[in-house]
Design a protein that fits this description.
mainly beta; Elongation Factor Tu (Ef-tu), domain 3; six-stranded antiparallel beta sheet; two-stranded antiparallel ribbon; 0% helix; 53% strand; globular
Length: 87
């Protein structure tokens, strides 16, 4: 099972631990597990909420710019992958 690239981190709001992600390659849904990787970043977390302009969404598609609360610090240009579901 190979992880699929979803997008990249465009900004990290330190005070509220929210990552701004530009969706570039594949859609991401609430309930999916993401894997965020960069020079100093490497962790997975389940997506329990996503927003566009402060409004909750269920699915983000390529071209969307979304915000998600993250469990750890992320950095601009970190890559976001979708972890395949266990079968």
């Amino acid at each position: 099972m190979v992880e699929e690239k979803i997008g990249v981190i465009e900004h990290f709001f330190t005070n509220i631990s929210v990552a701004a992600i530009k969706i570039t390659d594949r859609e991401l849904k609430v309930g999916d597990t993401s894997h965020i990787v960069g020079a100093h970043t490497d962790f997975q977390q389940k997506i329990d909420r996503m927003e566009i302009d402060g409004k909750p969404i269920e699915t983000a598609k390529p071209g969307d710019a979304i915000g998600i609360k993250v469990e750890d610090r992320v950095r601009e240009h970190d890559v976001v992958y979708k972890v395949p579901e266990e079968e």
